[in-house]
Amino acid sequence: MAQSFKFGTYLGVGLTAAMLLVSGCSKGNSANGDETRTTLKVMYYDERAFFQSYGMIYSALHTNVDFEVVSNQTAYQDPNGDYKTSMQKLIEEQKPDILMLDNSLFREYSEEGKLLDLESIAQDKSFKPDTLVPGLMEYLRDLGGGKLYGMSPNMYSQVVYYNKDLFKKHGVDLPKDGMSWDELFALAKRFPTDGDKDSRTYGLSLGWNGADAYQLGSMIASTQNLSMINPVDMKVTLNTPAWKKSFETAFEVVKSNVLHSQNMNGGMDAVFNYDDYLLQDPFVSGKVAMKMEAQYLMDQIEQAQKSPAVKDKAVKDWGIVTMPVDPANPDRSPYVNLNSLFAINAKSENADAAKEFLTYVMGEDFARVSSKAQTGGLPVRTTAYEDKEGRNVKAFYMLKPMESPMNNLYAKLPMNFYGILDGTVRGAVQSAYDGNKSLDDALKEAETQLQAELIKAQEEQKNKKAEDGAAASPAASVSAEAVAQ
Fold it and tell me: I need a labelling partner for 43 at 20 to 30 A (CA). Which of 55, 286, 387, 397 fits?
């Protein structure tokens, strides 16, 4: 198997890739010291992650550019749960040139004029929009209210892996791109459900989501872009026909015994070496006909097929298709996500240098090198995708990203409410699955309870902000008096 994109965690790979670039390219180099040095401030998760994914390669090619990384983790860890205020304070104090933002803040900053318009990058003839994954630019402009304020060099995508040998053995039609959930489940149900759990064949694995009715119902609902809360009026919208149908479908599939349950912690005592670890995956070991998973599974399969101790036990002939879609919206998927949104601070004094950085990381050269550097994610340039064995790698990028309603809720909901939301709905669904109450009653009761909890959490957050503001006022007054004296 020869693929141009593989994923994992290997020390030194980023440095190696950077050195390879330097040896073959001198673009942007300033070895003679004539170019003016520039320091770009970048707001990112942390310094190590930024340099591993971007900074190391870029610095090797642009020796006149230094990076200073401002971690945004303190803002997300605000004890008051008000990460928006904390993030804005961080930006005002540190004045980063380049911002890494989530979708919610990106939308807000776009509307408030806090980001630089990047249309000039996209209009440059070297940008080559035709080699970008479909729908990317449309998606970015939608997030920016019609204008291009952000770029994303990488994406995350899940696909359905399938074992061709098992399909042939059991006389089942092969999966195809653009299936609905019902079509996927129909294929899974054509595989036998009898036999010992450790030796039988399973029709489908959901990965680490296991065979959980709540999780599966939520996955089905996400394809239809359903939300548990209306972001406009902040009303809980759980007791609806669409949500009920999603959970009813999940109940039926889980009870059909076609799903493989993969416990993240279970069975690890039996892992003595890397070969054992590879065989822990039910798809790699040939136990499941289909599995929903991200791109890293391709690398695991390749390693298993090359291992002398594992290759005879590993899956032989396999393929991939897209994740299930909503027939009413067949070209979009919630399982295609952008890993990070880069934007430029409208107040940046290094806007030209910041644009040059974004131009490079969005380019084909960076996609080619980063796809081999195994820093996570998939390049948004389709030129970096290749499988010389002719597999359907388009399955990773042929569906367009779908904006989840919950992204717009992240900045609006009190932080402590997410745990309440998840726990309440999970408990209600499990109660209905166990037969303790009807699904109608369970969803109705959960909706009523959650609406009351949301109002309570919002009041508590409001009061907390008022208390913090009052506590800060005396200190400010004392400081003012001291200055006056």
Answer: 397
